[in-house]
Amino acid sequence: MKKFALLIFSTVILLTPSMLPAADYPVKPIRIISPFAAGDAIDNTARVIAERLKSILKTPVVVQNIPGGGGAVGLAEAAKADADGYTMVIASTGALTAGPLVNKGGFDPDDFAPLARLVTIPLALAVGEKSPCNTLRDIVTAAKTRELSYSTPGASSKQRIVMTRFAKENGMKLVHVAGKSGTDAATKAMTGEVDFVFTGLPVFENLARSGKLKVIAVSAEKRADYMPDVPTFREGGYSAPGELWFGLLLRKEVPAHIRDILDKAVKKAVSQEETKQLYAKLRFSDGYLDRDAFAKVIAGNIAEHRIVLKELGLIK
User: Fold this and answer.
1) Could you read off the pLDDT of 144-154 as tens digits, one per residue?
2) Which residues constitute the domain of residue 59?
3) Quick one: 147 and 193 in the same domain?
4) Spatial distance between the Cα atoms of 199 and 281, rounded to a whole number of angstroms
C-alpha cells in the first residue's frame, strides 16, 4: 500500500503543466496587460475582448494598465509573468515589432506566442486648417521641391516607418518630429509646428469635424464609413502604405491545451455581433487573424521594420 501511495505521489509530482487536464483551466481570474494608459485605443480594445471572454470562460478577466516606454514596460512585465495562461498581453504594431529593434526593453518578440490579431486601424494623413495642401498629391508634390516636416506618435513608431517607406517610393524630402502620442502629433499639425501629421484615422475624427484639421488621405482599401469624405491613398493615385493592428499574445511556454482553450474562446468572442458593434463604435476594423496567420504578420512586420529602421540610422 505504501509503495502504491508513493507511486501515485511521484506521478503527480512529475506531471508537467502541459500534461494537466484542460478541465483545470481556468480556475482563477485572468488578466490582460494593456501596455498603455486607460482610455487609449489599445486599452479600449482590451476591455471589449475582456468582457466577452469573461462570459465565455466563466471566470473574471481583468485589464491591467502598465504604461510606459511606448508599450515596452507592459510587454516586459508580460514576458516575465508565469506561463500558466493567466496572463495575456495586448500588443500593438510598433510596440511589439519595431520598439524592440531599437531599444532593449526587457523583452523580445520571441518571448511570446501569438494568440489572435483582433482589430486593424487605418492610418491617415492630415494637415492644419490653414495649410495650402488639400490633397495627397499636393503633399507629395511639395515634398519633392522642398523639405516638409511631419509628426507621428514616436521616433520608431509604425507610422514613421510607413511614411518613411512611402516617402522613399515617391521621392519626398521629409524631416520627422516625434510626438508623444497620436493626439500630440495631431496637435503639432494644428499649431503649424509641422506641415502634416500621419497617425491612426480615429484620432482625427473630432478634430476634422471641428475644422481644426483637414484629413486628406486614408491608407485603407476603402473610405471609412465615419469619415466618408476622406479619399484613400489609391484614389489619389498612390499605393496604400499600411495599417495598425492590436492583438493578443501569451508567453510562448504556455501549455498547448491552455492555448487551445483561449484560441477557441477568442474566436467565439470576436464572432459575436456585440463585439463587432463595440469595435465599430471605437472606429476599429474587424482584423481577426488566428494565431498562425497572426504569427506570419508579426514576422513580416519585424523584417520590414528592420530594413527601414536601418535606413533611418536607428539601428545598425
Assistant:
1) 999 999 999 88
2) 28-120+243-311
3) yes
4) 19
